[in-house]
Amino acid sequence: MLTEQMNFSPRLTAFAKEVERDCKPVFERIDEICEYNEARVLSAFMECGVSETHFIGSTGYGYGDRGRDVLDEVYAKVMGTEDALVRHNFVSGTHALSVALFGVLRTGDTMVSLTGTPYDTMEEVIGLRGEGNGSLKDFGVLYRQVDLLENGAVDLAAIPEAVKGCKVAYIQRSRGYSLRESLTVSEIGQIIRAVRSTNPQAVVVVDNCYGELVEKQEPSAVGADLMVGSLIKNPGGGIAQTGGYIAGKAKLVELCSYRLTAVGMGKEVGCTLDQSRGMFMGLFFAPGVVASALKTSVFALRMFEKLGYEVFPRYDAQRTDIIAAIKLGEPESLVAFCQGIQKGSPVDSFVSPEPWDMPGYESQVIMAAGAFTMGASIELSADAPLREPYAVWLQGGLTYYTGKFGILMAAQSMLEKGLLQLPSEE
């Protein structure tokens, strides 16, 4: 059927069956966590008394928008925090992180990144690149970082000294465009304990993008003060059309809300237009969608590992985010892989992506994302900067089977260009 409908090589479909058999025990583990998180989300909806009236959007100032307020309550319960700020007018995870940092930090304060250099799009926000653009550096916020160890691990021993006197201790949960391991919630707890050993007053901010609902707990359970993410990644479930969230201690969330709107107004204003239903529904569907994305990731990792490529993490590793990285080793393979992912997309499958100068990135980036929502990383997508080690970063898959087909399309694209050899070939 796959050979006839999707034009896959018969050898490739046979190989895929072998890969899928290897993945079954891992899939069972993912399903168990998914069931737990489905209960976590459903309980929050029930406890908060979500009603159809909460889906009605407001206009103008948005005074008295109960749907907006209840959505914040639902997120706070799901995330295990005192409060949350969930808004469609966060344009990205980077925007939400920027609001959080500008909300908490003041002139003369110090921010310390504990996981090396942050994700590319945060560099200009912090002031690592660019001058006079209104970065944290331009406003007199100091920055330093704890570099990762040679093996990519967090340097726990260096943290207690590094955070002395700092205002914000910053943790990036996911790997970003690096090949280090993403951080489990337990590992984040170890980092936070190292921070508290010398600076109990530090505000621990976690970039939680790609990690929500992958484990049974969020970083708040191990002491994080603020967690930040995007709704077109995990918690939006492929339904939220835009948006982001900040969740954590109530006083800190309030300060962040002043940066999003205006001092003195904060969370009390902001119309929801017609976005509320999608944000509620997205969160409701999110655990199952995240599970599909994880299964797609596991399948891809196992397939390319069996084909001889270095993959991050291993297919059977404990997962803490939906991102997988495959070290393809050459730009031609990188481009062919991404073009194959695009061919397997439900939207714009006829488009052939090429590397380009994407805003916020230092290197050219190639991105495959034939998504219902532009740039939605919870939908199957693959992207990479055109630089050594020519690794591709893969995430998403709204359903497992369509995600699997996308991965097979990527392999087929490389196969047709003579860049991949299946085990059965001479």
The fraction of residues in strands falls at 5-15%
Characterize the overall form.
Answer: globular
Distance between the termini: 26 Å
Q: How many individual β-strands?
A: 12
Q: Write the element-wise H/E pattern from the N-terminal end onward.
A: HHHEHEHEHEHEEEHHEEHEEEH
Structural commentary:
- With 426 residues, the protein is an alpha/beta fold.
- It has helices spanning 2-6, 10-47, 66-79, 93-104, 123-126, 159-162, 185-196, 250-260, 276-306, 331-343, 400-416; strands spanning 83-87, 110-113, 142-145, 168-172, 203-207, 226-230, 244-248, 310-312, 324-327, 365-368, 381-385, 391-395.
- The strands form 2 sheets. A 7-stranded mixed β-sheet has the order 1-7-6-5-4-2-3, sandwiched between helices. The chain has a 5-stranded antiparallel β-sheet with strand order 8-9-12-11-10, with helices on one face.
- Helix 7 links the parallel strand 4 (168-172) and strand 5.
- Helix 2 (10-47) packs antiparallel against helix 9 and helix 4 crosses helix 8 (250-260).
- The longest helix is centred in the N-terminal third of the chain and has 38 residues, at 10-47.
- The model has no long low-confidence stretch (mean pLDDT 95).
Record keyword descriptors for this entry.
single chain, 426 residues, alpha/beta, seven-stranded mixed sheet, five-stranded antiparallel sheet, 11 helices, globular
